[in-house]
Amino acid sequence: MVDIYRLDKQKLSLPLQLLLRILAVDKNDAWTEQAGLFADMDWDAFIKLARHHRVHPYLYTKLKEIGSGYVPAPVLRGFYQEYCNNTFIMLGLSGEMERICQVFEGIGIRSLFLKGPVLAVDLYGDISHRTSCDLDILIPIKDLFRAEKKLEELGYRKDDYIDSVLNDWKWRHHHTTFIHPRTGIKVELHWRLNPAPSKEPGFEQLWSRRRLSPVSSHPLFYLGKEDLFLFLVTHGARHGWSRLRWLLDIKQILVQSPDPVMLKRLLKANRTTHIGGQALVLASQLLDVWPQPALLPLMAGNRPGKLAEEAMFYISRMVQLHTLPLPEEVERYHKRHLFSLMTVQQRGLFMLSFLFPYPEDAKTLPLPKTLHFLYLPLRPFLWAWRKLQGERHEKGIDRLL
């Protein structure tokens, strides 16, 4: 018998409780016994939650099943309009995804699509049931500059937010971002699934386990089922599971029954067993989906449960991690949570990374590129100088996002 940590759900708002319940239930015949959940509901707060958690298109399909006897007609109409809008967005992303894939293929660049329409079809069976605001494409790092050049030829403009000293971008970051000024479509070119100090399979391993997506007549490849689970749980954990969409993805992939032996082996090899356990605790207790018996040991012990309890901070407060600057309380909490997700070895590597030069060092003392190696011994002194001047320290752990 596996002893599983019990989450504290007492302080969740009534709209959030209803949202979780609707996402959890697969059949509408249970609602006659739970009519009280809809009584005196603050529908404005409910709608705000659905939008924040990016689950409104999937939610519309469930609300339509429940019917107007429980859900006000104006609320249903509003969700239907957003469902239609999302369908048009996803169709546009599907077409652009195929175009980029063909262009990359034409110059010999292999690509794996991480999310977007391929994920919607794989997990939900319909591109309309999941939201996506961009295309995430994983390619070998050796092809990065050629891929960037092709995107620019297609009209995309690079968002040059990455400053780098001594090529630290290769491990401090994990993707570059391009935006098309006419269509507004955003493309993230990944050379890693997550930023360092995470451990993960290399591109060749992921490519060898790739799957062919049915979303297009042109061959489009995406991650194997177990690799997808690894990516989704590490991505969700890194963002504090602040969007229920990511947890709903975990529910959908668990329904597909991934290979438990391969999954446990993959999580162990990449030192993410505790993160997989965190996702399973959250999915089982918030969305009422339980993994196969062979995966239950991942949920055992204090660490997965405590990490899941930490994630409740984000879920219960509608935390917006991508809206900067973060409130001071959220920033402090998130730094601690990211650190708690790391293994002992990863924490050591992360602390050592502070000894490697940061872009702020080059701004404090500009040197010719041929002398950038001097930033290595100068790093402690430049850091101390900025502290004396009262400047804000490097983002450090925030770069993991």
Automatic annotation (TrEMBL):
Pfam families: NTP_transf_5. It comes from the Bacteria. Gene3D superfamilies: 3.30.460.40. This is Renal dipeptidase.
